[in-house]
Structure formats: structure tokens, C-alpha cells
Amino acid sequence: MKILQVADVVRYGSMTTSELRNTFLVDDLFQPGKFCFTYVDLDRTVIGSAVPGKNPLLLPSDESLKASYFTERRELGILNIGGAGTVKVNEQEFQLNRLDALYIGRGNETVSFTSVDAESPAEFYLLSYPAHTPHATRLIRSADLPRVQLGAHESANAREITKLIHLEGVRSCQLVMGFTQLASGSVWNTMPPHTHMRRSEVYLYFDMKPKERVIHLMGPRHETRHIVVANKQVVISPGWSIHAGVGTTHYSFCWGMGGENQDYSDMDAVAAEDLL
């Protein structure tokens, strides 16, 4: 498991492009036949992926966690962005089709991942935070959930939001998770932007062709920077940083948050004209 220490707002102001990428970008996920994990000191976030091939993958507990099994003191959100797959939690199996999700609460000792077809493997995105109490493990069929329509084609930000794990849906200790899909012809996400000091946030960008990119905007409103992001890469946003982006084409992204406030609408808005 890679350990990542996020810079504070003071160090951020003098960072080079490579330093920004090494500190706020996770670019080594979704490798065939294995797990990939990054432990972030910010809110004790674990970002990971599992891409099972012909054989199942058993969720390990890395030495960095100092736990006898992964969810001993953690909760786990899973979003499948690949082919159909199965997640087995102890003795219970859950089949996840593309864009289905699974919440696994604290205290589930055995978790394994399988692809239905190894030639078209499942690609499980994993996001985990510490949990102080157990919540029920729940399968989430995204096709059955309501969508929230935001933005407009005129401003190139027409998008559809699906909430997966949140206060009015599947409950958790601190994890909030969902995904946003931009309409064809729209390229902007989260503009005008916002911050929220009560929690940090991570974006997984996906549904992008290999040559396409998203210019992800970050930083305090008066000192913004950007990171160029490719398909299936993750950007970490501390509470002091905006998080917005513009792509070379439409795309999707999974947003996940952890911290002291699970209220989805808890945002400190930043007007576009106040950005520098």
C-alpha cells in the first residue's frame, strides 16, 4: 500500500507541476489481476481498486492499517465501472453490474472479488474511511435510483447526479459517495465550484477515451492551480481546495467524501468571478 501525505495550503503555493501530481493525484489504479491501494493521511482515506481475472481476489489487510482484517475498524464503498462481477462478504454474494455499488460496514472479516467474465473483467473502485460503528452491508442498484439533473447545455455543464451512499439512502459512518455523468457536448463539472472544510473529497474520473483529458482545477479561490487527469485517475481535494474541471469531451466521475459532516449540501460556494 502506497502512503501519501497531502500538502497543506502553505506548501501548496510553491509546488511545481510534478509535486502537485505526486501529492494530489493517484494514477496507478485498475491493474489487471490485482489490488492497488493508496493510504492518504487526510481523513485516513484509503483509495483502491480490484480487477479480478480468472481467479478471485481476497481483500487483504495491509500492514499500514495495523488491523487483523481490512474492515476491522473501517467501512468500504465499492463502485463497479467495468464488466459484471461478484463481491462476496463473508458467506453472502452480491453481483454488481456496471455502475452498481456496494456498501460494506465495519466488522466484515472476509471480502473477495470475482469477475463474471475474465475477458471483460469487473473494475471495482474502492473507497474507505474509518468507522466507529457497524452499518449494514447493502447492494445499491444504480439503475433503480433517482437522478438529479443539474446545469444546462448552454453553459456546457448539463449533468446527471446519482447518489449512492448518503443520509437519505444507504447509511454509513462518514462515507458519502455517488457519481456524476456529463451529457454529450458538456465538459464542465462543479462550476461554479465550492469547498467544504468539514470533509475532504476525492474524484475518480472515468468513461474517458485514452487520448482525452480533464483539466482539474484545485486550490484556494485566490490561488488556483490545475492537474491534467487521464481516464481512471483520482484527484484528492483537501477541505481548503476547490474541486472543478473541464474536459476535452464529456466524461463521468465518482465523488466520495469522508469527514465530520455527511450532509451532501454542506458546501461553501465560490462564485466564478471570485476565482484567481
Task: Summarize this structure as a short list of keywords or feature phrases.
single chain; 24 strands; 2 domains; 2 helices; seven-stranded antiparallel beta sheet; Jelly Rolls; about 280 residues; seven-stranded mixed beta sheet; mainly beta
Largest beta sheet: strand ordering: 1-3-4-11-6-9-12
Q: What ranges have pLDDT less than 50 throughout 5 or more consecutive residues? A: none
**CATH topology assignment of the largest domain:** Jelly Rolls
Tally of separate domains = 2
The residue fraction in helices comes out at under 10%
DSSP E strands, number:
24
Order of helical and strand elements: EHHEEEEEEEEEEEEEEEEEEEEEEE
CATH class of the largest domain: Mainly Beta
